[in-house]
Amino acid sequence: MGKIESGINGGFTGTVGAVTGYYLNGKWIIRSKRRKSIKNKIGSADQKACRSRFTMMQTFLSPIVGFVRIGFNMESKKRMMTAHNAAKSYNMLNAQNAAGEIDYEALRLTFGNISGATDVKLEQDDMGVHFSWSDNSNGDYNRKYDQVMLLIYDLENKMAIYETGGARRSKGTETIALSSVAKGSTFHTWIAFISDDRTEISMSTYCGTFIF
Which of 49, 58, 79, 189 could potentially form a cystine with 207 if both were Cys, beta carbons 3.0 to 4.6 Å apart? Predict the structure, then answer.
């Protein structure tokens, strides 16, 4: 709706039909109403592909936001963005193909430069899944007391269970409990280490899948 200014002989502000009026630098301006670009609204093939990849990564990360907030905390400060956006940006670039398919081995759910896990093994029983690893602290006191971070992810049901402050690196084992409700579910798994003071972290390591 437009509004007449200064009587019938004055200009008008707002939109009337296909024209828009406004006052600029002492003059009344009338121009045709801007139309939304149908091309931009629909999107080019490249735009559609980018939006699809973005949505797929966003969907994947949504159930594990709490984990990646810790995992990408230090990196996000360097990039001056949120941890969630830092994780999304890195993984879209490094762990996703043009079709949007995610390479789970290439995914990083934590980002840092301290030593990661080695010789990781998974065992399960009715209690849950048991992770084990080698103590690779090599006499470094700080690395000895790093805490393990574990994540298991049921992609089909979009359900994740994780631990962000588990056993010490030197202990070599930690368990994620599972209830009978999860029976038959396939879980993807990741492991990482974080320093006791939460200022250093390793890159996450993909540990494969298991069926509970």
Answer: 189
* CA distances in angstroms from 23 to 30, 47, 61, 67, listed in the order given: 9, 37, 48, 52
Distance, CA of 90 to CA of 115 (rounded, Å): 20
Where does residue 78 rank: exposed (0-12), middle (13-18), buried (19+ CB within 10 A)?
exposed
Side chain identity, residue 204: S
> CB within 8 A of 61, min separation 6: which ones?
68, 84, 87, 88, 91
Quick count: other Cβ atoms within 10 Å of Cβ 144? Answer: 16
pTM equals: 0.77
Contact 151, 161 (CB under 8 A): yes
Distance CA 98, CA 80 (A): 26
